[in-house]
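Trying the structure run again after the queue cleared.
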Amino acid sequence: MALTDTSVKALKAAAKPTKHSDGGGLHILVNPTGSKLWRMAYRYDGKQKLLAFGAYPAVSLADARRKRDEAKALLAKGTDPAHNLKMEKIAKQASNALTFGLIADEFIAKCQKEGKADATLTKKRWLLDLAIPDIGSRPIADLSAAEILIPLRRIESKGNYETARRMRSTIGQVFRYAIATARVANDPTFGLRGALTAPVVTHRAAITNANAFGGLLRAIWSYDGNPETRIALQLMAILYPRPGELRQAEWSEFDLEKGVWTIPASRMKMRREHRKPIPSSTITLLRDLYKLTGDCRFAFPAVHTRQRTMSENTLNTALRRMGFTHDQATSHGFRASASSLLNECGLWAPDAIEAELAHVGADEVRKAYHRALYWEERVKMSGWWARRLDEIRTS
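Done. Tokens:
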């Protein structure tokens, strides 16, 4: 006779375990202690076997019947339901072991093997570490967009909108790596793109007026602080690289005989080697620098140790000492100054200027066009720019 909710609830413990059948092999075992356990007896491969479905009332009569029907469906396909249950448990344990923190570490290791710059790796690690306390121990396959939003909101609540945006992007990179390695099926950060407050874009301060730029150049050329810092600022004005590209420059990158500075791909923003022509007048400046730091690997070593490069704050601090506020001039602003004044003069092809700035073109063909065809024009432009700076500075 089939069981009912009322009859199961009314079952009492006896001196010995008693079984009460519901049909199809399903029964409930009532122990002397009073516990009521769902079991299913079945035969597989000629052997009598038993499945455990859990305890009543946590597992209801309806739940037990559903589990029985699922087991019978597996038997009809020739699958042992006990073995299937064991495999599901193993898969669940494996899935629980694949935490977000573990996959994030794998992702960083992959980036390191691919030769990503140390600065890039440090930034990614920092952003992921901000999220680890909230989601690091969670199985990555179980993470939802709502859970990922928790650390993002925490960062956003401090007013760090750009950091929150970059964190979301980096977490998304971890998920896409997990998708590519068959650990998850989707990226929940995709649905968070419109959830975060968009940061207000503020451009780095730069002087783009020739007369005002002349005042900055005069201040730099007469700077009475550390001579290496003065030369670094002079080279920023003449060569207008990204500040990090200059600060971390090594003497092995400079060919002073040919007048070429080759910046390795590992330090370039776009991960492509970049060659910059050095005007002849600037080679003298570099030879002066070599007298100061030529015994060192780095062209611009730190003041207190030659094992590290000049601090990223050194150039901006020097500009402040000269009286320029952060709203007036920054080390990165030399790029905008050069771009504006070179484009305004109308003497040079815009693409040649973009190539010299190491900006990426619209497609691969254009990138090659920038690097190769415009080299001669860039050499002429670098000489003209050095002479133009002398004119602006002395006028």
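The two ends are 108 Å apart (CA to CA). Worth checking whether this holds up in the mutant runs.
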